[in-house]
Amino acid sequence: MDKKIKKEKFLIVNIILFSIVIAVIISIYLLDTTSKINQGSFRLNDLVTYSTVTIDEVDIYGNIIDEKNEPKVSDIGAKNFNVSQNNNITMYIAKDNEMTAKEIYINNIKLNYPKLTENMYIYIDELNKFNLNKKDIIVSLDKEEIDTQYVIRLNIDNSNCIKTANILKDKTEIKFDGTIFNLSNIKISDIQFKISFDLNILDVKGKLNICKFKLILPNELLIKNGISIIKEDVKNFPFKVK
């Protein structure tokens, strides 16, 4: 009888201890706000993504037709186009009055390629494009300062995601915007992609401020309305100090 009682007490004690451990782990997880609180002297004030398309009319051989000699829809039975999907990410970053950035750059770029793609590029200006199929890309960002914040513009292009798309003239009115995907029976899932990267700000005191970004581009409004302008929730993008 004594052995049975001792065994039951031992079992009860173990259950209680196990329950306490589980409760502590859950409490730590729920109360841990370190991944949500902004640190350092910089913070994201605003984040806007702007998605559009670039459309070039081409001949049957895929050569771009000069706009000056571009035939009218009524002159031909069909038109052929190369379509590129363009995305602009504009970041407004506030800073303390006494703190300035010595260097701003992005790295750790990871991309889930869309179904329709030829080449994906990331860049600040047209003269310095980085093909995203390369590894360990580091993009230095321009520091445009307005009042007490930096304005950073980053571009990501899906170049020639559609080549020689054929649009019949009697199908519908052709608009040179994102609605052309509908005319080509392209779904948003065919051109949408996920991208993540680290935005790094090295301040004048030598501290590295890092903000991790994860975005899905473009929004389905591109296909529905022709363009997409989305204001992201900045609470999802806090800075950490390394």
Q: Number of DSSP strands?
A: 12
Q: Ends: how far apart?
A: 61 Å
Structural class: alpha+beta
User: Would you tell me the overall average pLDDT?
Assistant: 83
SSE pattern, N- to C-terminal: HEEEEEEEEHHEEHEE
Largest sheet: 7 strands, antiparallel
Helix content: 10-25%
- The backbone outline, from C-alpha atoms, is extended
Low-confidence stretches: 28-34, 68-77
Indicate the proportion of strand residues.
Answer: 35-45%
Number of helices: 4
Overall radius of gyration: 26 Å
Could you walk me through the main structural features you see in this protein, from its secondary elements to its overall organization?
It is a single chain. The protein is α+β, with helices and mostly antiparallel strands. The chain has four helices and twelve strands; from the N terminus they run αββββββββααββαββ. The chain has helices spanning 2-31, 180-183, 188-191, 221-225, and strands at residues 42-58, 78-95, 101-112, 119-123, 129-131, 139-140, 144-146, 149-168, 193-203, 208-217, 228-231, 239-241. Strands 1, 2, 4, 5, 7, 8 and 11 form a seven-stranded antiparallel β-sheet that branches. Strands 6-3-9-10-12 form a five-stranded antiparallel β-sheet, with no helix packed on it. The chain starts with a helix and ends with a strand.
